[in-house]
């Protein structure tokens, strides 16, 4: 049942500077459960019927598998990690060694099987929370003061709006929130997200 290797992922893993042995071990498991391997966002991604199921990640402290619909997975032992306080869907299963991967293989395979079942059933993550953003006062004031800025902000995709609101709101002091808004004002007027280069 092992899926074909993607030559782009081969090249990515051959040139990896960290977690080399762990990448090989996780890749073997991910390909063995019938997922299709591809390269997305510069990472090894694993899909089922064209839908993203899991992606390899490597950080400084650990590496592992991120499940795109991880919040829907049953996890009574709380093994899966929420990526950040604002992450609604993705959950990570982290490892620090091949021995740890071997010890957790059965559990990883169970999560993968459950994630594939979610795709077969067409289950969706409820992202309604992302539409209930609370704008910081400084952003509300900036939008009220400048109709062009307000129009540009409203024209952004919901994801870009969310990224900006979370970034601005995350600052503890009003001065910092105001500085962040001014820093990104031109990008917003240009219709770009925080991480858009062009």
Task: Give the topology.
Layout: H1 7-14, H2 20-32, E1 36-40, E2 43-48, E3 51-58, E4 63-67, E5 81-82, E6 91-95, H3 98-120, H4 137-145, H5 147-155, H6 158-170, H7 174-189
Write structural notes for this entry.
By secondary structure, the protein is of the alpha+beta class. The protein has two domains: 114 residues, Aspartate Aminotransferase, domain 1 (Alpha-Beta Complex); 62 residues, no CATH class. It contains seven helices and six strands; from the N terminus they run ααββββββααααα. It has a six-stranded antiparallel β-sheet, covered by helices on one side. A hairpin with a 2-residue loop joins strand 1 and strand 2.
Short key terms for the protein model shown above:
alpha+beta; single chain; 2 domains; Aspartate Aminotransferase, domain 1
Short recap of the structure:
This protein is α+β, with helices and mostly antiparallel strands and 198 residues long. It is 46% helix and 16% strand.
User: Which secondary-structure class do the elements indicate?
Assistant: alpha+beta
Shape: elongated
Low-confidence runs of at least 5 consecutive residues:
none
CATH topology (fold) name of the largest domain: Aspartate Aminotransferase, domain 1
Biggest sheet layout: 6 strands, antiparallel
Percent range for β-strand residues: 15-25%
Distance between the termini: 42 Å
SSE order in H/E notation? HHEEEEEEHHHHH
Radius of gyration: 20 Å
The number of distinct structural domains comes to 2
Architecture (CATH level 2) name of the largest domain: Alpha-Beta Complex
Mean pLDDT: 88
């Amino acid at each position: 049942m092992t899926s074909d290797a993607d030559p782009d992922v081969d090249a990515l893993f051959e040139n990896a500077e960290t977690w080399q042995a762990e990448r090989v071990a996780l890749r073997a498991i991910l390909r063995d459960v019938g997922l299709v391997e591809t390269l997305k966002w510069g990472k090894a991604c694993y899909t089922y019927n064209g839908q993203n199921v899991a992606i390899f990640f490597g950080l400084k402290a650990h590496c592992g598998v991120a499940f795109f619909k991880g919040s829907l997975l049953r996890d009574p032992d709380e093994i899966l990690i929420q990526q950040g306080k604002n992450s609604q869907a993705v959950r990570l299963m982290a490892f620090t060694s091949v021995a740890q991967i071997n010890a957790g293989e059965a559990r990883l395979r169970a999560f993968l099987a459950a994630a594939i079942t979610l795709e077969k059933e067409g289950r969706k993550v409820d992202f309604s929370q992302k539409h209930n953003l609370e704008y910081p006062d400084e952003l509300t004031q900036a939008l009220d003061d400048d109709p062009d800025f307000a129009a540009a902000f409203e024209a952004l995709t919901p994801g870009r709006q969310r990224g900006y609101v979370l970034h601005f709101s995350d600052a503890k002091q009003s001065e910092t929130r105001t500085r962040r808004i001014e820093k990104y004002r031109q990008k917003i007027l240009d219709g770009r997200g925080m991480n858009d280069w062009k």
